[in-house]
Write a structure and sequence with these properties.
heterodimer, A: mainly alpha, two-stranded antiparallel sheet, B: 43 residues, mainly alpha
Amino acid sequence: MHVFANPTKFLSIARPLTPILLWSGLLLVIGGALYGLFVAPADRLMGETVRIIYVHVPSAWLGPAGWTGIAICSIVQLVWRHPLAGIAARAIAVPGAFFSAICLITGSIWGRPAWGTWWQWDGRLTSMLVLFFLYLGYIALAQASSERGSVSRVAAIFGIVGAVNIPIINRSVVWWNSLHQKASISLSGSTIDSSFLWPLLATALGFGLIFGAVVLMRMRAAIAEIKVEARMRRMADI
Amino acid sequence: MNPWPFVIAVYVIIVPGTALLIAHSFYKMRRAERLVDKLKKKK
């Protein structure tokens, strides 16, 4: 892992990887969404509103996945003092907050025709809203206490502590009564028909790749900012 | 209830939203990397 601790080595991988992730992600999302919108059938119970699934589910996966990434990077930063871990955690925060917000908004829009309400204070929806607020708090804390483009130890600890919300989001529909349906896709299989499943997997993978590309772009920006800062300091010393 | 306004609203939010996220990250990266190149040339 420390092989990538050298920013030059990291950049030699990140530079060619960024456009690959971005363009393949965009292709998958556009293909999956177009198929989902115009080719896939309407659902027997939900009707045409099922087409929201191709956007809502990927964002619902990426929001908590992003925070899991922040927590892992924070542990790596605190335990192994990996110089890129804090930069990666900070780079994940904005796309993570974005997809959490998209999940909440699209879920609310889907809730109106499906449940007859825009919002319900149940376990799943509330824990997802908490995740969004955690992201906002993390972004503010990371910006206020940044250390050479990375995040401070306080922000890293916040990233680890906030991860307690991730299993709560995951298990909320099992632990409490909820309007939200239980998980349809798990590691053991899926209860979704393949005509819905394939375009969903395409958009989920596509959004995941876009997420990765955005994280790489933000990490590259942070590394460049550190370089500029160091060079300016050296120039001021001369 | 007509479902299409809800479906359209979702895609109207996600498309420009994702485009904005990508554009902002790309612009931030390009601006910072250009500045590094500029400083390297100055040296």
